[in-house]
Design goal:
Blueprint lengths: L7 H14 L12 H22 L1 H6 L2 H14 L10 H12 L10 H16 L18 H6 L8 E6 L20 E7 L5 E6 L1 H11 L6 H12 L4 H18 L5
Antiparallel strand pairs: 1-2, 2-3
Length: about 260
């Protein structure tokens, strides 16, 4: 935060804003009636808190009111947002959790991962992508099961792979894990043709396939699956190839494979 000037109108603005952000540690301006200051205090905080609770509903539900408001208040008081846009507030909250809040014994062990998982839904719902010329590509509705293997499937830019230590997609008031799962949780979030956000769970093989398709390269779907079979040292590579074709076809139907 910039250094607050000692005198003048700017100093008055700083004191005014500091009180709104953290009224417990910053006195209110002496020349403003407290009834009026209360309007500002409630208006600013309630707007931010409401946006956080709607973007992070599971996290909000898991915390009691005292702990939730303590978390929201600390973010509101201590974090310096770098964007004036309301839609950027959840990302600013993530930055606060990951870079500023530090480790606290009272925090849920999966706090950061759950917050990231819930933020992703908003992020991909508003994500913008260009529409480069792909006249040489095969459209998704023209792809055959064979071509999924014989060519290199092209992924939608609105499909993002996620990896967590906790099964964040299952967390609820009825399921609150105390330690990470035995294996990482692989998820894929995507925006379908109707602009609805969906999540699907991946296994290590489908997560590996998606990661390979994200990389630059010309290897066909079959070649990538053969490489995965080799990495697994699978005694029957064709089983991996057949399973991979089913995965790719499912992704095509969901709009994850676009061409």
């Amino acid at each position: 935060m910039p250094t607050m000037p000692d005198t003048g109108f700017t100093a008055h603005q700083y004191r005014f804003a500091a009180h709104i952000r953290d009224p417990e540690n910053n006195p209110a301006p002496t020349d403003v009636e407290d009834r009026r200051m209360a309007i500002y205090r409630d208006l600013f905080y309630n707007n931010v808190e409401s946006f956080l609770s709607s973007t992070f509903p599971v996290l909000h539900e898991l915390l009691d009111e005292e702990n939730w408001h303590a978390l929201a208040r600390d973010f509101f008081a201590s974090h310096h947002c770098r964007s004036p846009l309301f839609l950027e507030i959840p990302h600013e909250f993530l930055n606060y959790l990951e870079q500023e809040r530090g480790e606290r014994t009272t925090d849920l062990p999966f706090l950061k991962e759950l917050a990231h998982y819930e933020w992703v839904e908003l992020a991909i719902s508003i994500a913008e992508t260009g529409s480069p010329d792909k006249s040489g590509d095969v459209a998704a509705d023209e792809i055959t099961p064979a071509s999924l293997l014989d060519t290199r499937p092209a992924l939608s830019p609105l499909a993002w792979p996620l990896r967590y230590q906790y099964p964040v997609h299952r967390i609820s008031p009825d399921f609150v894990p105390e330690s990470p799962g035995p294996q990482p949780t692989y998820l894929l979030v995507f925006r379908n043709s109707e602009d609805k956000v969906e999540f699907i769970e991946l296994n290590p093989v489908s997560a590996r396939l998606f990661g390979m398709l994200q990389e630059d390269g010309t290897a066909s779907g079959r070649q990538l699956l053969e490489q995965i079979a080799s990495e697994l040292q699978h005694p029957q590579p064709q089983v991996v190839i057949d399973g991979g074709r089913i995965i790719l076809e499912d992704w095509r139907q969901r709009g994850i494979v676009k061409g």
